[in-house]
């Protein structure tokens, strides 16, 4: 990741090459920190308040000190690009510091990875990997923490097998989510996506698509679905704040048709972002 700008709560904007965390910070030693990643369109972070709400909820679930919301908002303002700049990626991090006694917030600005539009143009390939249904509180359902090693290992396995994405499926074959995405598919005029009751992340972009789907001509069903349903779908795609709506053209080596829903929803999402 190329870091374009960095700001720290209580310190303001700092040089991206300057160290800002202590070596004994829990974020480093235990992966005990929360984060959010979102797109910035025309200098405006998309659904910023919703991301802050989720960051606050994640911090509470992990047992971190209360979120310094005002401090993070100030830090964010210091790194935002101009309205004429290209889309950017904003990452917010909240850590309790050493022993959870010195909380700290970071706002990091970086470019949107170039590969995203390249993969969107051809469609992404995915594999299914065993995942855990995080329904118990100690499994941190719906939490975005910096303990992301499993997700990154799954992405690395997908790349090793020649795929772009990994989709977690539990031991019973129920589709959960991608490593950094929510999963969708279409059969006829109905869109299907795993329910939040499965312990998956409540994606902010997922919520936006739930709002946009009816106007695009689709109804949505949320539930518990086997991988076989996804593989038999007319089309499939993933959603996330940075990747937006990404068509899936292959899952576990099985080709999927590229249909209209992903493109319609991607256009609707961009139009929604432009109104902010």
Please characterize this protein's 3D structure.
This protein has helices at 26-29, 48-62, 69-79, 115-122, 149-160, 204-212, 227-231, 260-274, and strands at residues 5-8, 12-14, 33-41, 44-45, 88-95, 104-111, 124-130, 165-169, 175-178, 182-187, 190-194, 219-223, 235-240, 244-251, 254-255. By secondary structure, the chain is an alpha+beta fold. Strands 7, 8, 9, 10, 11, 12, 13, 14 and 15 form a 9-stranded mixed β-sheet that branches. A 6-stranded antiparallel β-sheet has the order 2-1-6-5-3-4. A hairpin with a 2-residue loop joins strand 14 and strand 15. It is globular and about 55 Å long.
Principal-axis shape: globular
Largest sheet entry: 9 strands, mixed
- Beta-strand level of the residues, as a percent range? 25-35%
Overall tally of structural domains:
2
Short summary of the structure?
With 276 residues, the protein is an alpha+beta fold. It has helices at 26-29, 48-62, 69-79, 115-122, 149-160, 204-212, 227-231, 260-274; strands spanning 5-8, 12-14, 33-41, 44-45, 88-95, 104-111, 124-130, 165-169, 175-178, 182-187, 190-194, 219-223, 235-240, 244-251, 254-255.
């Amino acid at each position: 990741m190329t870091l374009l700008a960095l700001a720290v709560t209580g310190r303001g904007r700092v040089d991206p090459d300057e160290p800002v965390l202590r070596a004994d910070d829990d974020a480093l030693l235990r992966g005990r920190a929360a984060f959010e990643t979102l797109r910035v369109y025309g200098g405006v972070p998309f659904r910023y308040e919703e991301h802050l709400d989720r960051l606050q909820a994640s911090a509470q679930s992990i047992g971190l000190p209360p979120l310094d919301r005002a401090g993070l908002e100030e830090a964010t303002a210091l790194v935002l690009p101009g309205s004429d700049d290209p889309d950017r990626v904003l990452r917010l991090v909240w850590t309790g510091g050493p022993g959870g006694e010195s909380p700290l917030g970071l706002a990091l600005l970086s470019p949107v990875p170039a590969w995203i539009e390249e993969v969107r143009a051809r469609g992404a390939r995915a594999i299914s990997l065993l995942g855990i249904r995080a329904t118990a509180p100690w499994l941190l359902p719906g939490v975005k923490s910096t303990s992301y090693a499993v997700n990154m290992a799954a992405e690395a396995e997908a790349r090793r097998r020649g795929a772009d994405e990994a989709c977690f499926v539990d031991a019973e074959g129920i589709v959960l989510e991608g490593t950094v995405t929510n999963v969708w598919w279409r059969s006829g005029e109905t869109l299907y996506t795993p329910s939040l009751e499965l312990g998956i992340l409540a994606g902010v972009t997922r919520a936006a698509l739930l709002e946009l789907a009816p106007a695009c001509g689709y109804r949505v069903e949320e539930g518990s679905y086997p991988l076989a349903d996804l593989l038999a779908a007319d089309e499939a795609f993933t959603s996330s704040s940075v990747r937006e709506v990404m068509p899936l053209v292959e899952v576990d080596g099985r080709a999927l048709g590229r249909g209209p829903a992903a493109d319609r929803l991607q256009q609707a999402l961009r139009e929604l972002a432009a109104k902010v």
